[in-house]
Structures are given as C-alpha cells and as structure tokens.
Design goal:
single chain; mainly beta; Neuraminidase; five-stranded mixed sheet; 50% strand; globular; binds calcium ion
Length: 344
C-alpha cells in the first residue's frame, strides 16, 4: 500500500539522510506485467551454493524463478500470489523436499507447491490450497517450530493474523489446521518466522513491527519492536521482513521501509536492538539501478559464492530504471551491508 502524504515524505527524507547506501550487485530480469506487479522473493539455498535460486511473486499472475545471475529459469503462471516463503524437508509422498507457499488473492487461499531440489524446479501445479476465510489474504510466511510446520497469513484490511499447522494428510496432500488468530486492526502484510527463537514478526504497515511468541494463540503477548513515527525508527509503510540467521540464534532482523526507500536492521536476539538502516544504490557497473519504494525482501546468511560471501539480500524495486523497464528485484551482498552498518 502506498501513501503519498507530504508529512510522511518529509519524515522519510529527514530520516534517510543518515542511512548509508549499499550498491546492488545486480538486478533480475523484469517481470512481464505492468504497474506494481513484482512483490516478494524467497531464496532457496542449493546444496551447491552458486546454484541457489530466487522464487518471487508477480502478484498479478504467478511465480518466477531467477538464478543468481538474475535470469529467469522458470515461470509458474497462475493465481495472484502476493507473498511467498519456503521451508526445507517437507514429508512429501516421494520423500523429503522443500515446500513453497504463497498467499493467493484469486481465491483467498494459502497455495502450496513441491520444489524439486534435484532438478531445481518448482512443480508448476500446486499440491494443495488451504482456505483462509479472509476477505483478502495478503501477507504470508512459513516456519518450522519444533516438529510443526506453520503457515502465517494476514488479511489485508482488518490486519487479521492467522496461523495454520501444515502436515501431510492421509493422501499425502498437505492439509492445514488453523491453530491461532487475532486482529491487529489495520493493514498488515510482511511476516517472518524465527524457527530457532520460536517467535514470528509481523509488519503492521502504518504502526510498526510486532514480535509474537509462536505459541501465543491470541497475540495478547505481542511486543512492538519498533514503531512508525515519533519515538520510532520507522516510516509508513513497513513492508517485507526477513532474518539473516547466524549460529546459536544470532543475526539480524531486516525490515523493508517502503515510505523511506530504506531497510532497517535489528538484532535478532530478544531485545531486538536497532542497528541502523541502509539504502540500496545502483551497482558499481551501473547494470542495476538504485531501489526506490521497496516492497518484499528476503535474506540468507549462507555464503552463495564470491559475490555473496556473507549471504544474499533480495529486494523488490518499485521503479526499475536505466533503462526504464517493468518492475524487478535487486540482489545485494550482505557483506556490504555489514561494512556499511559496522555490524559484528
Ligand atoms: Ca507487498
Ligand atoms: Ca530503481
Ligand atoms: Ca534497471
């Protein structure tokens, strides 16, 4: 959601004066749909890291799969998948393999696909659709809490948050049982599950970032990590959330701050201390333009070859320029973020 309120713009410009810029490494191919169409990425880390892939939504018509060079290696048209996430090791009838999920606005379901690690292909036909009961399903993320695979989805207007436990049904088809739900009261989208800490984060776009215990079925114990406006470091809209995970539960929470075209970074630990914010500049070879008005993001800490020695961050770019093209995603080296924000 985009608000062009003068006060927000002024706030954003003031606040981002202090945010250092980190150059993109490259950009993906553009999506084939006009307007605001690219939305949210999920990174699949391959056993051979340089073969890793980025699965991303084109929210008017399907999924794209990009390689680390930014080339389209697969398209899976269908539906209106808004946010996407994945987890390894789902018990498919054929054996353990990654599960990919998305929030589909055509029928307000959680849609689930099998990903084949061996062929590096997403099975284009979904294996299951789980009805959310929402008026308009919006945000989506997956998590593994102990033995339980969980899916979290949000409703666009009410900010309702629902949690489903996902498990293979008797026929091997993934089935979902709703296990928690509550309403934030206004638009909420981005979310991410911290499997190791047993919590998840959800972005209420106009308010801030909430941290919620995965066992808190009513959301009553949720804590505001950071807020929009006075007393906070955020500017509306707060969009995608992701985690850069290091050993023993360390690392960082990253938030896409659309209203200021910047990314806020917090410690992943219990206190979620604010570590600063950065912007994404054009790549040094000028092959990729800077990021404006960012939406969904994903980040991994696994080394993915010489360009991404401390991991990869993928960010949607609202305006893909130089040359002027339809929307796409930018790739960033997390090592450059660590340098810019003096992390570790
Ligand atoms: Ca979005
Ligand atoms: Ca741009
Ligand atoms: Ca470009």
């Amino acid at each position: 959601m985009r608000h062009i309120a003068a006060s927000i713009l002024v706030l954003g410009l003031t606040a981002c004066a202090t945010a250092p810029s980190v150059p993109a490494i490259r950009e993906t191919a553009a999506v084939a749909q006009t307007g605001d169409a690219a939305d949210d990425p999920a990174i699949w880390v391959a056993p051979q890291p340089e073969q890793s892939l980025v699965i991303a939504t084109q929210k008017k018509g399907g999924l794209y799969v990009f390689d680390l060079a930014g080339r389209i290696v697969q398209e899976a048209p269908g539906g209106e998948p808004n946010n996407v996430d994945l987890r390894e090791g789902f018990a498919w009838p054929e054996g353990a393999a990654p599960i990919v999920g998305a929030s589909d606005r055509t029928d307000n379901t959680i849609v689930l696909w099998r990903f084949d690690s061996a062929t590096r292909r997403l099975e284009p036909t979904p294996r299951a659709r789980i009805a959310t009961g929402f008026v308009e399903v919006y945000g989506f993320c997956l998590g593994q809490i102990g033995d339980a695979l969980i899916a979290i989805a949000t409703d666009r207007d009410s900010g309702e948050v629902g949690m489903w436990r996902i498990a293979p049904g008797p026929d091997g088809v993934p089935a979902g049982e709703r296990v928690a739900g509550y309403t934030l009261g206004s638009i909420a989208e981005g979310c991410v599950v911290d499997d190791d800490h047993g919590v998840y984060y959800v972005a209420q776009e106009l308010e801030g970032i909430w941290r919620v215990d995965a066992n808190d079925t009513t959301g009553a114990g949720r804590r505001l990590v950071d807020r929009v406006g006075a007393g906070g470091n955020l500017v509306a809209d707060v969009e995608g959330l992701s985690l850069w995970r290091s050993a023993e539960g360390g690392g960082y929470l990253v938030a896409s701050v659309q209203g200021a075209s910047r990314f806020a970074v917090y410690d992943r630990g219990d206190a979620n201390a604010y570590r600063g914010a950065f912007r994404i500049a054009a790549s040094e070879d000028a092959g990729a333009d800077a990021v404006q008005g960012t939406d969904g993001i994903d980040v991994v800490s696994a080394p993915l070859g010489p360009n991404f020695p401390r991991g990869l961050l993928v960010a949607q770019d609202d305006r893909n320029t130089r040359p002027s093209e339809l929307q796409n995603f930018k790739y960033l080296s997390w090592a450059d973020v660590m340098l810019a924000l003096e992390l570790e």
